[in-house]
Design a protein that fits this description.
This protein has about 160 residues and is mainly beta. The chain has one helix and eleven strands. The radius of gyration is 16 Å and the shape is globular. It starts with a helix and ends with a strand.
């Protein structure tokens, strides 16, 4: 237990020395935007959405993106494991998250719809400003298609 605490403090000090807020702290506030569109059984356009969030967990190279709620309460979220330089092309359907869902989830009508296939492209990531952007191309288990681009300025998770 003591080793974890010392490691967490060390990482916080290192990040703070690099100009980042401490782990668990927040930056200037997260923001997200997208041109994501859902077609098929679930239809939604996120181009006017500004109500979502974005969290960057640097120790795990993990980016969590969530849209705000749009037409009929539809939301979309994804968790992307990104590599060096904070870019990558993680699979939208595997591996399962801790909650048993896929990395990409559409939430509609009180249900969580899992991804059947596709990719979450993280095309650009600046860990010093916490700015990320990319695209999504995926098909959900119910046949809904998710396409478009996204961007966000993340807070630390």
């Amino acid at each position: 237990m003591l080793k974890r605490s010392v490691l967490a403090i060390g990482i916080s000090l290192l990040l703070a020395g690099c100009g980042a807020p401490a782990i668990g702290g927040s930056g200037d506030g997260a923001s997200e935007s997208s041109s994501l569109v859902l077609t098929g059984p679930v239809k939604a356009d996120f181009s006017n959405d500004k109500g979502g969030s974005c969290v960057w967990t640097p120790a795990a190279f993990l980016l969590t993106f969530t849209t705000g709620s749009v037409q009929n309460g539809v939301k979309l979220d994804f968790v992307a494991q990104v590599g060096v330089n904070a870019v990558g092309d993680p699979d939208a359907a595997t591996p399962p998250r801790a909650d048993g869902l896929t990395p990409l989830v559409v939430r509609a009508g009180g249900q969580a719809i899992k991804a059947a296939s596709g990719t979450i492209h993280v095309t650009d990531g600046d860990v010093s400003t916490h700015a990320f952007k990319g695209t999504v191309e995926a098909t959900m288990e119910d046949g809904t298609k998710v396409t478009g681009s996204w961007s966000c300025t993340a807070v630390f998770g």
